[in-house]
Amino acid sequence: MRTEQPKMIYLKDYQAPDYLIDETHLTFELFEDHTLVHAQLVMRRNPACAAGGLPALVLDGQELELLSLSLDGETLAAGDYQLDASHLSLQPKSASFVIDSSVRIHPERNTALEGLYKSGSMFCTQCEAEGFRKITYYLDRPDVMSKFTTTLSAEQHSYPVLLSNGNPIASGPEEGGRHWATWQDPFMKPAYLFALVAGDLWCVEDSFTTMSAREVALRIYVEPENIDKCQHAMDSLKKSMQWDEQVYGREYDLDIFMIVAVNDFNMGAMENKGLNIFNSSCVLAKAETATDAAHQRVEAVVAHEYFHNWSGNRVTCRDWFQLSLKEGFTVFRDAEFSADMNSRTVKRIEDVAYLRTHQFAEDAGPMAHPVRPEAFMEISNFYTLTVYEKGSEVVRMIRTLVGAEGFRRGSDLYFERHDGQAVTCDDFIKAMEDANGVDLSQFKRWYSQGGTPRLAVSEAYDGAAKTYSLTFKQSCPATPGQRDKQPFVIPVELGLLGAQGQALPLRLQGEAAAGAASRVISITEAEQVVTFVDVAEQPLPSLLRGFSAPVKLSFPYSRDQLMFLMQHDADGFNRWEAGQQLSVQVLQELVGQYQRGETLQLDQRLVGALRSVLENASLDQAMVAELLSLPGEAYLSEISEVADVDAIHGAREFARKQLADALFDLLWQRYQANRELSRRTAYLAEAEHFARRSLQNIALSYLMLSGKPEVLAACLEQLEACDNMTERLAAVAVLVNSPFEEEKAKALASFADFFKDNPLVMDQWFSVQAACSLPGALARVQQLMEHPAFTLKNPNKVRALIGAFAGQNPVNFHQVDGSGYRFLADQVIALNALNPQIAARLLGPLTRWGKYDDTRQALMKAELERILASGELSSDVFEVVSKSLA
Ligand code: ZN
């Protein structure tokens, strides 16, 4: 807990470390009621620092009980060093020296899940970003890189498996039923990549032969009952290794690569060198217990952490302000990997929908920050959608600007130039510039300016001159600490469609001949006119194809024009986007009617558009499913000036019911055909199967709105006869949201009875109920908190129940009596003492108060005030609450 007001750390204050740690020798003696950590640090003055005297050495350390300390073998007495709550300082006598320290720590009491802690019966670590200082006194900063040797000792029977980074070099028994093992990591690394694991684990083994014919042992360690759920992760790992060789020329560098699955983990997974530690939700997957979405998440996270071996580990960050250097780049890499493994267009649609709903909301709220933040109190609060997802969009724009080959030249140069170094986002950009002979200085504003740019586009066609002009006006709203923004470089991929839907040739004014029919125009000015010549007819523009920049684009399309683009646009993403824009227009009209108390009237053009989608047998089924998915309530809130959750929910549900009635026969055919295929073929975690199940399940969710007995029967048949969690959970979810009380209760009870021993499946069971938009959700959630499978100490449980209620159930969370807000604040206060990182993340929905009406704003702010006044706050929660109220 915080003992003093947390202070701001600024990027502009960065200073290179005074001392370096060439070698780190660690010994862990793990016991049930404490752990002893001995650290020997071989240190020297940083030669890069100005000459002169020897400054004091200030090591980071928190919650450590210092047992002994020596300098060059001489034990130090109490007066020879200074200790405060987070540092140990001493005065070195020479430029090279060795520090030995012994500390006692308590992993068995660590509920924050940072540093060394216990997940169930196993010991594990999480050191990123600043967790290593809770293990031993150290220079806990990413620009101090060291060669680590780690010895662990533990009781043999309970902890037969002892792991750390790198290669195993020795092991043996000890007296008293204990044993030990030593691991050595030949690569220099910062402390945040350190890891150890001790437990009773089984492993699935495989191997991979690298491009230079080296054999790498692959091991996935899990608790014995999960050994049957590792194959998908192993397949994903091998695909990732192959892909990184092919697409980036990157080979794995150790002889062994290990993944360990743990149940208690704050985030998705962690890329510790050679020893990735994963939230079990991102490793374990088999048909019977994990949905298609979970399978895809496992594939993506395994790839993400594996890709970090180069983008993050071999080349790491100089300081935490540079976090997007590794995270934005690695998200971009895993997104491209997933696009190559599955459907590229569907992956892009999912990512863009997620970015626009959640990152845009973050960018419009009190915690908004640039991709490279300039200040923070608590770095854990900056593992954000902006750093990760917008950071990935920024890397994508660089590739769009320099082309795929130029991007590969740039990444080759980056890895070659900076291998073994801790670098900055500027170094990444410089490599891209040098490899391509381009100037990205204006482009770099994407790293330094926060907020989502708007790009308003208008057109003018001159039939006599055959010219067509598009006027682009960009602007960017103020964000905390940043009022005036300079123009961004916005790459706009576009095409022009003729009256028959054909692609028109694109010749810019001043060009000798037409170029490609889809091309990228860079918008660099606040206002910029782009003129095409030889335009034989009035065209319809297709703008921002593939979502080529993370901006809010507006163009005055009519609904008929959007329907035309849905049919004819050559870009698959933009066909979907036209459908979304049409739905948004129609839904916003219904929201207006709802607010005015009028009878709701659905624009029948939306029915017609979706009918053509369903009738089109040549469309990819996953695309049909995406096109049928109306924009979510959270997205509709994000794009509203003032989000009226009741009107949005009412309007969207009305539209869904109208669509279900009007398209019943087509939906029923699609449902039955796909359910029949599911019945006849075994489950496969492959794009074609994902596609057909997603269409089957969205069709079912529409069909259930009809209330017809044959649909209920079909739903129950799917629930009882299916062989996989994708169909099972979808059936449960539609029942939970239906009026069939008896069937609902029975389905929930038998699901829980069957899966009570599988925590990941129970998470799904909690979520489905927490997200149910019918009345009474809060009472249900409160009751579920008493369920034996629930605990506040497990982050997955917190996210599944409390997170799903606050984030995915707007009508219930935003109840105008404030009960949802009060409940969330109570949970944040309780979690603040247990797990500050999770407490701060859970706060997200309360920080968005600016979106709602005055009554709700006041209620939300009152709860933030109550949290602020509740006592000793962690720096994590304090930063979010104080910024939200500022
Ligand atoms: Zn990452």
- The gross shape turns out to be globular
Give average pLDDT, whole number: 98
Number of strands: 33
CATH structural fold name of the domain at 756-886: Zincin-like fold
Structural class: alpha+beta
Q: How many helix segments?
A: 27
The percent range for strand residues is 15-25%
Q: How would a crystallographer describe the biggest sheet?
A: 9 strands, mixed
- Ligand roster: zinc ion
Show unreliable segments. none
CATH C-level category of the domain at 756-886: Mainly Alpha
Distance between the termini: 22 Å
Helix share of residues? 40-55%
Q: What is the CATH architecture assignment of the domain at 756-886?
A: Alpha Horseshoe
Instruction: Provide the gyration radius in Å.
Output: 28 Å
CATH superfamily of the domain at 756-886: Peptidase M1, alanyl aminopeptidase, C-terminal domain
Tell me what the structure shows.
The protein is of the alpha+beta class. Among the domains are: 454-554, Sandwich (Immunoglobulin-like), CATH 2.60.40; 555-662, no CATH class; 663-745; 756-886, Peptidase M1, alanyl aminopeptidase, C-terminal domain (Zincin-like fold). The chain has 27 helices and 33 strands. Strands 2, 3, 5, 6, 9, 12, 14, 15 and 16 form a 9-stranded mixed β-sheet that branches. Strands 18-19-20-22-21 form a 5-stranded mixed β-sheet, covered by helices on one side. The chain has a 5-stranded mixed β-sheet with strand order 29-31-27-26-33, with no helix packed on it. The chain is globular, with a radius of gyration of 28 Å. The two termini are 22 Å apart. The model has no long low-confidence stretch (mean pLDDT 98). Bound molecules: zinc ion. The site of zinc ion has 4 residues, from helix 3. Zinc ion is lined by residues 304, 308, 327, 330.
